[in-house]
Give the backbone structure.
Amino acid sequence: MRILTNLFLLTLVVVFFSCSNNAHEETAPTAEANASAPLTREQQLSALSQIEEEVEKAVKINDSIGKALVKAYSDYANNFPTDSLAADFLFKAAEVSTAIGEYQNALSYYETITTKYIDYRYVVESLFLQGHIYDDFLNQDDKAKAIYERLIAMYPKHKFAEDCKILIKNLGKTDEEIIKAFDKKNKEKPSANRQGRLMFPSFIVADNTLVS
């Protein structure tokens, strides 16, 4: 079920690449060791900062740059799991994975957030987006329903809980069926035009286009 609504990203995806040097076969062992040494946190963040300006100009993410982005985010989170930016980079890795159609990877990153970073500011969104992927991209209604019900049970007062209740009712329906149902409801109850409107988070990826 692809919901027809204006979707745009919460964050503009940024990338950093690990710097590496190819050591010549005749290079001294100490030089080889230095070349292969992992970058420090500061070095990785510096590389990220240097490339952000170029990435911000991008409108679409192709598979090649997308996979590079995902690897960079994932590597940072793996190298510095307790770092304050680890969860943010996992979230971005999931966003980019979704944009390039790597849905299982996206699910894995979101699940890592919901299990290991439960205090993260977007932990509820990470849970919601798992359901969104199962729902809109993988057409696995049972798994989508399970995620939505899990969110409702864990965060009953969160704004997404109401959205999930509506989404559960619409699982398996096409966009056209949903629109017709909304139109019918609005005609029957003119004073309740906003009832039933889905309030999606602003960071859902529409295809592979970054909409600002």
The chain has a mean pLDDT of 76. The chain has nine helices and no strands. The domain at 38-192 is CATH 1.25.40.10 (Serine Threonine Protein Phosphatase 5, Tetratricopeptide repeat).
